Amino acid sequence: MNSSPFPLIPIAPDIRNELAAILDPKRILTRPIDLIAFASDASFYRLLPKAVVLARGIEEIQALFRFSHKRRIPITFRAAGTSLSGQAITDGILVEVARNWRNATVEENGNKVRVQPGVIGGHVNRMLASCGAKIGPDPASIDACMMGGILANNSSGMCCGVTQNAYHTLESLTFVLPSGTVIDTAEVGSDLLFQRQEPKLAEGLLDLKKSIHGNPTLYERIRYKYQMKNTTGYSLNALIDFERSVDIFQHLLIGSEGTLGFIAEAVLKTVPDLPVKYTGLLLFQDLYAACAAIAPLHDAGAQAIELMDRAALRSVQDQQGAPSLLGKLPPEAAAMLVEFQSGMEVERQTLEFRAKSATARLRLVSPAVFTHVPSEQALLWKIRKGLFPSAGAVRQSGTSVILEDVVFPLERLADAILELKAVFAKHGYTKAIIFGHAKDGNFHFVISQSFNDQEEIDRYSRLMDDVVRLVVDRFDGSLKGEHGTGRNMAPFVEAEWGAEAFEIMKRLKLLADPENLLNPGVIINSDSRAHVTNLKTLPSIEPEVDKCTECGYCEVHCPSRDLTLTPRQRIIVQREMKRLKNGTTKDREIVKSLDADFQYMVLDTCAVDGLCALACPVGIDTGALTKRLRQASHSSRSQGLAQLAAEQFSWVEQGVRLSLRAGHLGQSVFGANFMRNIIRGANKLTGQRLPLWMDDMPQAASVSRPRTEQNGAHAVYFPSCISRTMGFLPGEPTDLSIVQAFVAVSSRANLPIFIPKDIEGTCCGLPFSSKGYDRAYRFAVNRAITRFWRWSDGGRLSIVIDTTPCSYGLLTSRSCLTPENQKRFDAMKLVDGVTFAHDELLPRLKVSKKSAAVALHPVCSLVKMNLTTKLEGIARACSQTSFIAPNAGCCGFAGDRGFLIPELTEEATRQESAEICKGTFDGYFSSSRTCELAMSRSTGHAYRSHICLLEEATRS
After folding, report:
1. Which pLDDT score is estimated for 670?
2. Which domains does the chain have, with CATH numbers?
3. First to last CA, the chain
4. pLDDT at 233 over 80
């Protein structure tokens, strides 16, 4: 049985030395915490790699292939690791091709796009948006999965069907074979080069092609199978669609799940991104009524028709924004998410007419309701795209969530779904849900499954046997429509395709990878029990963590993903520690190793920004979890010292300003190196508690503030403690501080603001909250609300906060307030500075001087409050163009992390900084002083507050 902890065998020193001769030793990960973090993908399998290598460049890939053959150690390539069938794990060498393979280039005015495997699909679409184009594949995970996986799995999705997937939109590939041969199929003479360098493979492919053409029954079988979605096994259609061996092979690589070669780069033809959308949710009495609607909706031109059964709807009906009617549907009900699209605004009414005509004769539970509103459309799609993880989140603790996708002929769809439900009931899977792409007959089913004992494993095995018989024998469908064969369906490839086709697949694998060292066991696997081997157990830890399905949607937003661990990996490590805790002596030794790395890898480098919760379909905030873990690690003494600091916060403010002045004085006299050495020495005594001194440290803010009056004030202005202590950054204009600019521009708009005289020592509590000092946080935030109440004249005046993280912290603090302060909180209006500037100041001001172009950095809390558009609105009013980098995200400064762990900020901002530095801008703006410092440090350009942009643009 595979539920026990898996053996952690240290890599042999000589093997590590060989790897170190191939690539930088810093990019070879062999510590237990690293291996465990990469032992899982989004599937229900896990394998512990011998090492994880972060490859960079084709030469390293070639060298790794040579190493693999010499040492007889398998290698597997991994991009995002969102694979659902175990394609991205190995007990050999795991080659991560995400962080160093992120180049993407738009070509031919958006008609084509060139991508490397580490580029996120959604990022590519954002690059193409200005050209009115997108890539053909549109999987639900497009904002998390990477191009390597999209190509390797031949992903499709909601709208692309069987004509716009990666196979059909492929223009050219640059690939590396296990032999080390590199071919760019776009080059003139690539086929001749392929035949010359790989004669056995090239000739073998043509022989396979001849054998298919000489077998009319098999030929027609292949044609039939690819009229529907099908990713079971290799893409045999390549052997009848193309003539040249190089064209055949590059299309065989699509959907090969990294078992035939490595795709280093691809050029894809794009498809139109139709901007005019008309989206609706249709509710039906039962599945038959829903399936009867597919043809009329398809004939009317619906681009997307997504079917959800009652169990699927039940898993999301309580989510925020879900239509209230979902909870009142009958037991056999079903729903369809339908979308009509067009490239021209003038056709919007035509879409309405088509939708109305198509739905007029349908048997609906309630009248069809469609919407043009993008936010409402996004909400509907969020519900649909989050079905898999949402279903997984409500599963019983300790069970895995399994998602498979099958394809049935459209004319027999309703019967097939009902019979599939009967199979689930037969084996006791009463909570299984079914949803999918109705117009393609492609359906996903989600079940919860325990792998903690043999009886449960055998139950799952019997279920899969019956599913295979139903799909293949009863309905002649496809066992995999778009998720790739993987480990779960590898034992059943022959059952679907037959002996002749399967023999061709085995010969293909042997031709390309004769040593069977490239992702072995995936697609071709002789073990009939492979789908119930190397199974992942999920020990219960706590309710929030237990909801995690390890889908990986969170990772793209994590600022520490290229430095230490991602939110998913933090949870994976904690689960493994739980598995090992009560194990053998050797297991406990591994736990000691994990404990030694836990502080830095899991706790210290988590920015606790909470953006992971936005991407997580079930809203898991790993930052909040980290705060709780930090809190648990603090002694009562340190908690007491933190509360003392909160109580005497005015002294803390004075200390920060004094330290900045002293530091700059020391730097001016003795140099920056002197200051850095002083701090390093002090940190040896304090245990790394003091901020590192950097050349770009801000000046101390002035203690004096603009004079303001309470009488006649429009609002109370609360400059955060950061604004009160941190002044100008190097390279920043020093004519007006943030506080001065806020006061000046408010006065100019005839909306004067008032700064209380006793503001010193008032803090929102965020510095204490992020470090897990709960008592200090509660004291600070309650004192702030008490003072706000007094300053605002019992809630009569709004409180304007100039630092967005502080605004967000205060606006979400209600549960930590005393009952009296909760009443005050409910009666007051707290306003972020961006909202105040956009909604109240901007309409009353005349822009007299526009910048040519400005760059913006939306901070995490601005994104979480959905205020990015308001920051952009300010920028558009004050400049000709504004730019937000496609890879803009958390800067990783996280209050003081940028002072204590500067490498976190360096890695977090690397991609965004590179995109910013490609352009030329008149100014750089954000809405948090520490984030502005992070971006200034990363880009070399001084970032300032958005209020400075507004003030300068409206000067007379």
Report:
1. 82
2. 104-272 (3.30.465.10), 276-286+304-384 (3.30.70.2190), 390-497+512-531 (3.30.70.2740), 540-617 (no CATH), 647-735+750-838 (no CATH), 840-953 (3.40.50)
3. 77
4. yes
Tens of pLDDT, residue by residue over 692-746, are: 778 888 999 999 899 999 999 999 999 999 999 999 998 899 889 999 999 999 9
Model pLDDT, residue 668: 83
Q: Which residue has the tokens 């001769």?
A: 21
Q: What is the pLDDT of residues 538-590, one digit of tens each?
A: 888 888 888 888 999 999 999 999 999 999 999 999 999 998 887 788 888 89
User: How many of the other CB atoms lie within 10 Å of CB of 815?
Assistant: 6
**Helix-helix angle 910-917:929-939, to 10 degrees:** 70
CA 684-690-695 angle, 5° bins: 105
pLDDT of the residue at 4: 42
Tell me the sheet residues that pair with 335. Answer: 283, 308
Residue 236 above 90 pLDDT?
yes
- Helix (H/G/I), strand (E/B), else coil: 261: coil
687: phi then psi, degrees, rounded to nearest 5? 75, 45
Q: In the prediction, which pLDDT does 148 show?
A: 98
**What is the Cα–Cα distance from 575 to 548, expressed in whole angstroms?**
11
CA angle 503–509–512, rounded 5-degree value: 140
In 879-953, alpha helices (H): 897-900, 902-908, 910-917, 929-939, 946-953
List the structure tokens of 300.
């009317």
Q: Is 501 left (phi over 0), alpha (psi -120 to 50) or beta?
A: alpha
**Cα separation of 391 and 396, whole Å?**
10
Residues shown for the chain: 956
- Could you give the strand order of the β-sheet that contains 276-284, starting from the edge strand earlier in sequence? 369-371, 276-284, 334-342, 304-309, 433-437, 442-449, 400-407
What element of type H or E holds 308? Answer: strand 304-309
HEC assignment per residue over 793-823: CCCCCEEEECCHHHHHHHHCCHHHCCHHHHH
| Separation in Å, CA 896 to CA 81, 232, 605, 842, 858 | 31, 50, 11, 32, 18
182 DSSP β-pair partners: 176
List, in sequence order, every residue forming a beta bridge with 46; answer none if it has no partner: 40
Using CA atoms, how far apart are residues 268 and 168, in angstroms rounded to an integer?
Answer: 9
Distance CA 232, CA 525 (A): 13
Longest C-alpha distance within the chain, in Å? 93
Q: How far apart, in whole angstroms, are the C-alpha atoms of residue 719 and residue 698?
A: 17
pLDDT in tens, 253-288: 999 999 999 999 999 999 999 999 999 999 999 999
Per-residue DSSP letters for 491-560?
Answer: GGHHHHH-HHHHHHHHHHHHHH-TT--BSTTSS----TTGGGSSBPP-----HHHHT-----TTGGG-TT
